[in-house]
Amino acid sequence: MDISTKGKKEIGALGEKVAAEYLKRHGFSIRDRNVARKTGELDIVAEREDTLHFVEVKTNVADEFPDENAVNDDYDPSLNLHEMKIRRVARTGEWYVLENDWEGEWQVDGILVWLRRRDGMARVRYLPQIV
Predict the structure, then answer these.
(1) Domain covering 8-127 in this structure, CATH number
(2) What pLDDT is attached to residue 69?
């Protein structure tokens, strides 16, 4: 599937779908997606081993996957996981915990998704506890 004609929203939605599938394959259950409140949005709310995970997903389209050993890749989606964004996710996560009477542990995680332009193949990197 050539994704070069897809818009920014479509790319983001595809990246979130890839991230949700990744989490499921790694033992998470998906509780919610795209939860929006005044404080911000939660891309994915997942649960594993009695811990809620508020997962912020950052997606990038690339001609080729980045070399994990290279120092200067063209673009690193983790650059968009800046402190203000993470704080907003944590604040919205606090709201979610209160609203859903969650009494267990919770944390904010990140997932970076690279989508290869020519065929839509994905590479995923999970970043636990980014707060």
Answers:
(1) 3.40.1350.10
(2) 57
